[in-house]
TrEMBL record:
GO terms for molecular function: metal ion binding; molybdate ion binding. PANTHER family: MOLYBDATE-BINDING PERIPLASMIC PROTEIN, TUNGSTATE_MOLYBDATE_CHROMATE-BINDING PROTEIN MODA. This is Molybdate ABC transporter substrate-binding protein. Belongs to the bacterial solute-binding protein ModA family. Residues 1-32 form the signal peptide.
Length: 255
């Protein structure tokens, strides 16, 4: 009788073991896949915070490359091995979708805010009126051809009457533009609010949204990453409450 009862007991134990294995596999964190993310320069520090928050529940290797949206766009078109593209605009992600390089799933993950910042000149808080050559001899903006924040700065300057008659210096991207002002090479700069919001020094004027094209920032999954579970999980994470809270605290608007 003992021999006859042994098989059902073993089979039952096997079923329990199999069920536990399945449950553990479903709840286990995603691990092992490397994800390369191309991130617009204005969003670099925020992206680093998001990766850190994402890492608390997922074991992975996420690498961030930062630059102007325009230059990252060109790199992607030429085959750079990125999985996700977090641009400072929606135009370039849309073009990647149209050209079959990205999946047809555009996500607006943030709306940027433009600021006019000076390290030493309090008058900058008065806005465009403060842009006279007696106080702001040199003004920095990001390259409007490759950086959406630079294009927005040009729109803002065009709304000023009389026109600003000082020297305009162009940074390769918004990060370099900020460095020009932080180092004292220029008197003021149009930067992302996220770059200067928490600085202990300096003065800024937050540019009204009405005088420039909205800085809606779009993200896409590149086709090379359509089967990369970690890349897809991070893309979904951008819409989570945790991620959106981090993005808002960094100085962006969210939906």
């Amino acid at each position: 009788m003992f021999a006859m009862n042994r098989k059902p007991y073993t089979f039952g134990r096997f079923r329990v073991s199999l069920l536990l294995s399945l449950l553990l596999s479903l709840s286990a964190p995603i691990r092992g896949e490397t994800v390369n993310i191309a991130v617009a320069a204005n969003f670099l520090s925020t992206a680093q915070q998001l990766v850190q928050a994402f890492s608390q529940s997922n074991s992975h290797n996420i690498l961030i490359s930062s630059g102007s949206s325009g230059k990252l766009f060109i790199q992607i078109k030429h085959g750079a091995p990125f999985h996700l593209f977090l641009s400072a605009d929606t135009d370039r992600p849309k073009r990647l979708i149209e050209e079959g390089i990205a999946l047809d799933d555009l996500k607006i993950y943030a709306t940027g805010q433009l600021a006019l910042w000076s390290k030493h000149y309090p008058g900058i808080e008065q806005g465009l009126e403060a842009l006279d050559k007696n106080h702001v001899t040199r003004l920095a903006i990001a390259n409007p051809k490759t950086a959406p924040y630079g294009a927005a700065a040009i729109e803002v300057l065009a709304s000023r009457e009389p026109a600003y008659d000082g020297v305009i210096v162009q940074g390769d991207n918004i990060a370099q533009t900020y460095q020009f002002a932080a180092s004292g090479n220029v008197d003021a700069a149009f930067v992302a609010l996220s770059q200067i919001k928490k600085l202990p020094q300096g003065y800024y004027w937050q540019v009204p949204h009405e005088i420039h094209t909205p800085l809606h920032q779009g993200a896409v999954i590149l086709k090379a990453a359509q089967d990369n579970l970690t890349a897809n999980a991070f893309y979904d994470f951008l819409s989570s409450h945790t991620a959106q809270q981090i993005i808002r605290q960094s100085g962006y608007l969210t939906f």
